Amino acid sequence: xxxxxxxxxxxxxxxxxxxxxxxxxxxxxxxxxxxxxxxxxxxxxxxxxxxxxxxxxxxxxxxxxxxxxxxxxxxxxxxxxxxxxxxxxxxxxxxxxxxxxxxxxxxxxxxxxxxxxxxxxxxxxxxxxxxxxxxxxxxxxxxxxxxxxxxxxxxxxxxxxxxxxxxxxxxxxxxxxxxxxxxxxxxxxxxxxxxxxxxxxxxxxxxxxxxxxxxxxxxxxxxxxxxxxxxxxxxxxxxxxxxxxxxxxxxxxxxxxxxxxxxxxxxxxxxxxxxxxxxxxxxxxxxxxxxxxxxxxxxxxxxxxxxxxxxxxxxxxxxxxxxxxxxxxxxxxxxxxxxxxxxxxxxxxxxxxxxxxxxxxxxxxxxxxxxxxxxxxxxxxxxxxxxxxxxxxxxxxxxxxxxxxxxxxxxxxxxxxxxxxxxxxxxxxxxxxxxxxxxxxxxxxxxxxxxxxxxxxxxxxxxxxxxxxxxxxxxxxxxxxxxxxxxxxxxxxxxxxxxxxxxxxxxxxxxxxxxxxxxxxxxxxxxxxxxxxxxxxxxxxxxxxxxxxxxxxxxxxxxxxxxxxxxxxxxxxxxxxxxxxxxxxxxx
Length: 588
Prior knowledge:
alpha/beta, Rossmann fold, Nucleotidyltransferase, domain 5, 3 domains, 19 helices, disordered N terminus
């Protein structure tokens, strides 16, 4: 290649790259050999193609048409995307806004479409107007056409005709026989034909039914699905894939703002003492973010000033919990530490603070006892019952069928309000009642409040027949009624949930149960239902309701010292518990 060897290397700085592009195209327009060499170099390397011939548009900048020159973090993402396409593997990309994610996926698809036979691709977005709308650069196909328009003619496929080969939601390569087609979200998405890869753009914003159906329907038409999005809560299909909450396994890459050399300039974080720790490189900033540190920078601080907390979580932070209108304060929930499962060496040992055991409660010769038997255990015990303590139990009853929610029980100390035991399972209402009776007896005859709505009626009736200490609903005036169990109404539901949210925010008690903490994290205000508090998407909230009910029971039936001696023991017990908490490094 001799005299044309200099085109193997090219500058990556803005002004140098622009000059190099112009010089190269001017020379190649007059020299067929340079055209052949350049085309071959583009065929060999997707980076050469993007760095020298791909263009982007940003109406916020002047000029608004800019050469796309890959940052280092984008080069890593491009390698991962190409590898996923070549090996036939799904790849999820979650991102901060303005990281070039959609552009680079489209450039890669275009590169395969130009230079690799058998490269048919499909582009999907939540509605048709985001897939293709002429002269609207925000649409996927207009980005592709825009890129093609800035290519020199000698890089186009042989026989290319704009009118024939660039039509609505379709690009056809007459030389290679490749196609790129588009489709809006629907329940049969992608079933029209095989694809080398499929882009599911802004997947978190897809209608829930369509997103689930599309993921299923595309499994048989391609081996490479690439969902790309900023997060939008934790209850959608994109979030379940990213977080693995439904058991899906998919490789995930995060294009977080800390990777961007401009956005991360001056990056820092504050340690526990409030001291500022500077991060000198994007790699350091990204590593710190991955470890859970709240990284900031002058750019980030400016974004925080102009955005709401939810907007910042969605568009900047890649924060699945905060981006979806969480009901409970996420910062407070992060201070709630899940306790660790242990197995004691002997039955007489206490449960160490910060740990829990799995056990079963059963009747033996007319007495209710606890057995730590992992194979048959059904309850999580965080504290063993103390004779001077009083307890309240809240319970949410399910139908007990395979496809229903689980029944959930929460036991709380009336004095500390801490969770001392819990269990959840798919149980018939009658079996749930029996377990509540066992647990209530074990915890000093605890006051038990099963929700009496729907299947809870059967649970309350059966529990009453067993002779347990059953809670009875109070009327609006606070007077007792003959209605068994807790009655959730449209009036009191927001009241008990708001009270729970306030207690969690001020660190009033310890949750301890990891399942409860996770349910609280995915409990949101559903904007589609006027802000109704409920589980996000397909997550569960039975534990949240049981927890809220138990809290209200404690308010209505608070701890009452039966004697001065017992009250003194209780206070001593609490002071000991506070000391253990301080020693464990837990502070609310």
